[in-house]
Amino acid sequence: MAVSILFPDNSIRDVPGQLIVRSNCHDSRTAFVQIPVNSDPMWRYCQVEGHWHAVPRHGGNVSILTPKPQAWWHSITQMQDRTPDAEAPGPAKRLRYISGRA
Fold this sequence. Notes:
Helices cover 9% and strands 35% of the residues. It is built from 1 helix and 5 strands, in the order βββββα. The chain has one helix spanning 91-99, and strands at residues 2-6, 12-23, 30-36, 43-48, 51-56.
């Protein structure tokens, strides 16, 4: 479902929308309301007098995921994962390498 949004250049564009349940506290009726999905990094959407308007976002994007630090054992040469050859070894070569009879 799409919601029509008025942008600052007076153009109207359709953006993805979703239905939410909005209940009225004065009576027992519940209503479904269609709202735009605020997933655009350039625009946020505000409702003014029943109409949706696009407002530019300010600020920069923040990286939520930070790179994980390397595990402590990765700096130890003997504990690194490696194969004996650059070629992909077969099962017999792998067993000989693991058992130390390379």
